[in-house]
Amino acid sequence: MREKELEFEAVQENAWERRPEFFALNPAGEVPVLLEPDGTVISGGYAIMEYLEEAYRDNNKRYIGSSISERAEVRRIIDWFDRKFDAEVTQLILFEKVFKRLMRCGEPQSDAIRAGKKNILSHLDYIGFLTAESHYLVGEAMTLADIAASAHLSALDYLGDVPWEHNANAKEWYALMKSRPSIRAVLIDRVPSFRPPKHYEDPDF
Amino acid sequence: MREKELEFEAVQENAWERRPEFFALNPAGEVPVLLEPDGTVISGGYAIMEYLEEAYRDNNKRYIGSSISERAEVRRIIDWFDRKFDAEVTQLILFEKVFKRLMRCGEPQSDAIRAGKKNILSHLDYIGFLTAESHYLVGEAMTLADIAASAHLSALDYLGDVPWEHNANAKEWYALMKSRPSIRAVLIDRVPSFRPPKHYEDPDF
After folding, report:
1. Is A76 on the interface with B (CB under 8 A)?
2. Core-most of A59, A109, B82, B149, by most CB within 10 Å?
3. What is the pLDDT of residues B31-72, one digit of tens each?
4. What is the DSSP letter of A120?
5. Residue A67 burial (10 A CB sphere; 0-12, 13-18, 19+)
6. Cβ(A23)–Cβ(A29) under 8 Å?
7. B44 and chain A: CB distance < 8 Å anywhere?
8. β-pair partners for B41
9. CB–CB of A68 and B46 under 8 A?
10. ipTM of predicted assembly, 2 dp
11. Which of A55, A68, A79 sits opposite B44 (nearest CB)?
């Protein structure tokens, strides 16, 4: 939404508290949920991304690819990060280290964290492969694929759990993402009682 | 694709065998993958569904909703079934009962199957709620939301694990889906060494 220069207010929802008012908006009880001024409610990352591309297409800022096959590739990569990377890395590290503490549901499992840290390496190599001959994950323009990947990686980087030295291309791509004003605005956000490493905000890390 | 009257050949891929030739098509090593005659490769349900709607739009058979807000609702429901229902029901029952045997990776966990059978009840109620005042999950026309839901439910129904008597509206909706030629073609398919219950193919079940 920042890339599209759409004004919005971010509201924190602790979905695990299962507030009835929140379930009334989204019966799945999950974030993200988008509320439009006219009362329209759009639930879930998939529906929200496609909605924003369809509803705000006239401002010449499109992020889902310009041809049919490019859009298919953007969607393949979004799915890679929001489903595959999420299951193989994010859930194993972020859930164990952060959400368990926030939700007060037990101690982090070190074997899960170890598996996540091992799994992230091949994903960094895949990013490196995709960006070896282009600036972004799908061609020369930034797309929702880059945003989906950066969302996962910035959350893990906040915990110091992305070994950037593992792949130089991947690191260069993320430096490019960090230099975008839309991403910089995300990087100043903080989670109470968790402090990110020094390099977290720095585009020249 | 049958609803759009597109000709295709279905090819079985046992993704767990991790064939290098299949990874060359889809680096995620997962089904579904769509191969076009011109060599275009589209990977993953999300990319394939959107691709088919974009590439074959001129034949007046569209299944993703006619307005922006209807499309957002169709995508919300697709996500509900392909992510939430999948994790809460399909993975617990189908993975334990069928895939473990096909993949030869251990015995079914009865507590997982029990949890899946409990979880399916609220999903049947949700289908019943959505179809209480319309024929399909999103309005009066069949969409990809109905197809996604039917894909999960037909796989579970094959195992006799859908208690249709739990919700009359849900049962009525599924009877409507079963009467469509595109779904009937799916229901004649068989998995070797698993036999479906008598009502499986019957639209008047």
Report:
1. yes
2. B149
3. 999 999 999 999 999 999 999 999 998 767 899 999 999 999
4. H
5. exposed
6. yes
7. yes
8. B35
9. no
10. 0.94
11. A79
